[in-house]
Amino acid sequence: xxxxxxxxxxxxxxxxxxxxxxxxxxxxxxxxxxxxxxxxxxxxxxxxxxxxxxxxxxxxxxxxxxxxxxxxxxxxxxxxxxxxxxxxxxxxxxxxxxxxxxxxxxxxxxxxxxxxxxxxxxxxxxxxxxxxxxxxxxx
Length: 139
Known about the structure:
Elements: H1 19-28, E1 30-31, H2 67-79, E2 87-88, E3 91-92, E4 94-98, E5 104-111, E6 116-121, H3 128-138
Parallel strand pairs: 1-6
Antiparallel strand pairs: 2-3, 4-5, 5-6
């Protein structure tokens, strides 16, 4: 069942973080994944291996089945400055990226002490879908 409402508090940070800020963020973050957003666990090492929920957007739709790919996209999002204005523990609540196939993704901070994120494709009905694509293309 597709979501009807999206969190209006999610906002891209403007101006984008400086090179120094981006480097500091990259040093503190990693991609953990979530079994709730996976049908095929790939090499993510999730526990439980896969436990998709009907109302969750699945990473599988974006073709992301390798952890290194997810980690690369997370780092790319930071490098391009697509981070949220909202922070927790000095880390952005959200980081956005776009796959090589043009699918916008959202990563959400799940553990601020460990700096771990999980991610999922943005549904086309999400108002941030088009905005993330614009920001990504603007570099």
